[in-house]
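Hi P.,

Sorry for the delay on this. The queue was packed all week, but I finally got your sequence through. Input first:
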Amino acid sequence: MSELPYRVRRSDRARRARIVVGADGVEVVVPRRVPLRQVVPFVEAKRPWIERTLRRQREAAADAPRIRLEPGGELPYLGERLALDVRREPGRRRAHVARDGDRLVVRLPAGGDLRAAVEAWYRRRARAEVVRRLDAACARAGRRYSKLTIRGQRTRWASCSSSGAMSFNWRLLLAPAEVLDYVVEHEVAHLDHHDHSPAFWALVAERCPGWREREDWLRRCGPALRL
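Then the structure:
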């Protein structure tokens, strides 16, 4: 049997051991009180699921937009491609990122963090892109949301609380525009049905007829949407 690489992280908040399979590998999260000797049998018991998940992620990576976060690289933006124009300026004190046509111009201090600067730009743009779509979708539905938060969750794309508070993942901007459109309609439908009942999905289908294809794309390619 081949070796399955993974890392172990102890957590004061975890109530039970769990396994996270992401773009950066396999992580086993265990409570402080769990002896490390229990990790190996736990991982072996979950090996079939881990290997299936890793295989799906490799397949998804082949279909997902190509992400090259490096000078001269390219990044996806709602179905478009942006060429990265990175300029390091020794006298600069803070990063500045701006879009110029089909280029994303990143000006960095000599030791500036390219990933952090680009992610900050995507987060700002995510608020603008989501607000426009969310306001329009709520107006069509005759509903209102209470607030909007942009986050970078590892396992969730969006959420809608019982009070109407909305949260969206900035990484949705790495997906095609129609995927973001679907996720917005999905969350707005939760303002009427705060569950995933047949009535909820009927409402989603009415407002977004192509939702199944977009949900499938996000399920397959979502894990690869990382800078």
